[in-house]
Amino acid sequence: MSQAKKLYLETFGCQMNVSDSEKIVTLMKGMGYQQTQDPVEADLVLLNTCSIRATAEQRVYGHLGKFKSIKKAKPGLIIGVGGCVAQQEGEKLLKKAPFVNLVFGTHNLHLLQGMVAAAEAGKRSSQTDFLDDEKRFDLFPHSEAEGGVTRFVTVMQGCDNFCAYCIVPHVRGREISRSAAKVLEEVRVLAEAGVTEVNLLGQNVNSYASKQPGEPDFPELLRLVAQVDGIERIRFTTSHPKDMSQRLIECFADLPKLAPHIHLPAQSGSDRVLERMNRGYTASQYLAKVAALKEACPTIQFTGDMIVGFPGEDEAAFLETMALMEEVQYADLFSFIYSARPGTKAAEYADDATRAEKQERLERLQAAQKKTTLARNRSFEGTVQKVLVEGLSSSGESLFGRTGGNRGTIFAGDPALAGRVLDVKIVEGLQTLLKGEIVHD
């Protein structure tokens, strides 16, 4: 019996890349590849890349260097690059890194088995064509149903918003939504395999099916998913504030399975900056959505994204961002210094703030958010939370789960409890997680 081939896979970036990597693992298992965490023992190395930040391409080329040395010792090693940097670079990547065997873009996962087979036969290839056919979802495999407590389910791909700073429409393409029937079929298969929580995934789930007459819209899709037996909790990401409808807000009041958490990126608290970003809403309109969500679900937890130092942001605009953060009271916030991406509108803007000024603003923002996060975590002390047990913690010494509000929680218990929703009393709120103890009947 021949020894199984080994796949080493690294994933960078957003949840969409994580979901794509799950599909890659399924595809490669179909070719006899088993995953390994050690690149030295791999027969196939794949990088699933992200291009959202500046110098992403240079980072990928630099990262590939460590695999080049492995390949010198193991000439048969196949190296492939996929994801958003691959979509941007295409055949240039094969020329700049001659030890790379294959490059596959964001619409080309369905070609991966053939590309790997060609690489095994000594052929190099690049596939980065966009697929505009509305049936392209049928070409993409489901990730394996077996195992896991919580899984991503892709409901749409691409984005039509063209925010001035964002590379996503250029590397993921325009919006296309998967049929509700296909989504529900995958959710049912996952539920039958023991999955308890699904996270519906798209670049902008709020505009799901907006270009497909006759399909349910996103609020109705949530209600359909909530009817699937075995699914205890539903999440979704990511939402664009301008497309968040009152009907979607009402789902947080009406659907017990819908987790009381939303990732709602504001990006700035300045109307002038938001207009330059082409975000399609004002700070007051964003805050009105936040207020409506809090009214529908008083326990809801907010996370979001903020960009610091966008071209034209001065101190006054930055203080407006700080004021918006103070009003929302985010549980967590992903914050970054603006970085220009080639091909985006903002790359044409004059950038008059110094790097030192941007860094100082980012540090102030993050220091303020750190205090808010700790205060919010401490506010849970003494409360009983519904925690979905995902398995052992990273230390292996306790169980790890998440509250409905997406607060990571550790507590003592039997690993066999994975997949169960338990009552957990919070005994301590720390900076990055909660500590608790199971409430026994």
From TrEMBL:
Residues 378-440 form the TRAM domain. It catalyses: N(6)-dimethylallyladenosine(37) in tRNA + (sulfur carrier)-SH + AH2 + 2 S-adenosyl-L-methionine = 2-methylsulfanyl-N(6)-dimethylallyladenosine(37) in tRNA + (sulfur carrier)-H + 5'-deoxyadenosine + L-methionine + A + S-adenosyl-L-homocysteine + 2 H(+). Catalyzes the methylthiolation of N6-(dimethylallyl)adenosine (i(6)A), leading to the formation of 2-methylthio-N6-(dimethylallyl)adenosine (ms(2)i(6)A) at position 37 in tRNAs that read codons beginning with uridine. It comes from Geoanaerobacter pelophilus. Gene3D superfamilies: Methylthiotransferase, N-terminal domain, tm_1862 like domain. [4Fe-4S] cluster 1 binds at residues 14, 50, 84. Residues 145-375 form the Radical SAM core domain. It is found in: Cytoplasm. The gene is miaB. Belongs to the methylthiotransferase family. MiaB subfamily. The lineage of its organism: Bacteria, Pseudomonadati, Thermodesulfobacteriota, Desulfuromonadia, Geobacterales. Its cofactor is [4Fe-4S] cluster. Binds 2 [4Fe-4S] clusters. One cluster is coordinated with 3 cysteines and an exchangeable S-adenosyl-L-methionine. Keywords: 4Fe-4S, Cytoplasm, Iron, Iron-sulfur, Metal-binding, S-adenosyl-L-methionine, Transferase, tRNA processing. Pfam families: Radical_SAM, TRAM, UPF0004. It is an enzyme of class 2 (transferase). This is tRNA-2-methylthio-N(6)-dimethylallyladenosine synthase. SUPFAM superfamilies: Radical SAM enzymes. Monomer. Its EC number is 2.8.4.3. [4Fe-4S] cluster 2 binds at residues 159, 163, 166. Residues 5-121 form the MTTase N-terminal domain. CDD domains: Radical_SAM.
